[in-house]
Structures are given as structure tokens and as C-alpha cells.
Design a protein that fits this description.
Organism: Psychrobacter piechaudii
InterPro entries: SecE_bac (IPR005807), SecE_sf (IPR038379), Translocase_SecE/Sec61-g (IPR001901)
Shape: flat
Distance between the termini: 71 Å
Pfam family, one: SecE
Radius of gyration: 28 Å
Largest sheet: none
Keywords: Cell membrane, Membrane, Protein transport, Translocation, Transmembrane, Transmembrane helix, Transport
Helix content: over 70%
Number of domains: 2
Function: Essential subunit of the Sec protein translocation channel SecYEG. Clamps together the 2 halves of SecY. May contact the channel plug during translocation.
Amino acid sequence: MSKQQDNLERKVSDARQGAHNTLGQDLSGKSAVEVAKTRSPKDMALWGLALASLIGATLVQYKLPGIWQPANDLWTRVGIIAALIVLVIICLALTNQGRSFKVLLKDASIELRRVTWPSKNETIQYTWQSLLVIGIVAVIVWLLDNLFNWLVGAFIG
């Protein structure tokens, strides 16, 4: 167990170092959230390019065939739309927020390795307990519904 814990700690350390290298900033004083909140002119330009590409991808279907003859082919339009969407993803990945998201995904994968998953027998036992409680609550709600229907019917006549 200790060896596995040491291995996880090493991976956490490697992820933090990778985050430091990826973000190009010192994370010792800042969290990934603080880094994601920082704005720079490069980020603004990338967000603008991503937004323009996304708008362009939505307009390709309607506007481009009237301007450019080869765009009358469906597969040409699909290819252009796919290329613009890939450009959007690349632009967003290069922003501070995109880099912080990659760090978040690395941290999440490390945390998932730390989870103690239930055994098959525990899963079956908890499933049956949940189904039993759901059934009991359903019967109680059904009885209350019938009671209220009877009371309303008695008052209304």
C-alpha cells in the first residue's frame, strides 16, 4: 500500500510540475483557478479568433455557396466547418483557461486512481437497498396522493 501511495504522490508531483511547464507560470503561489482567471492580450486575441471562427462555421452553410463556387459541394462545406471547429478548439486550448482545464483533467485522473471502488457484492447490496427505499417512498407517496384525493373529494362533494 505504501508503494502505491508513493507512486500516486509521485504522479501528483509530476502533474504539478507539468502544470508549471504547461502554463509557463509559477503555480506555487497561485492555484490553477487563479491562473485561469488571469487575462492577457494573447488570450483575448485567441478568444476573439475562436468566436469569429465559430460564427464563421455557422454561416458557411448559408453564405459561402453564394460567394465561392466550390462551396456548393456538401463535402466541401463539411470540411470547412470541421476545420473551423478544430481551429476553435486549438485556439481555446492555447488560452490560460484551456491550459488550466488540461491541468484539471490531469488532476482528476490522478484523483480517480485514489478512489476506493466498492466490490461487486457491495454494489449489489447497495443497489438492492436503494431499490427497497425507492419502493417504500413510492408507496408512501401513493398513499398520500390517495388520501389527499379522498380529502379533496370529500370537501368538494
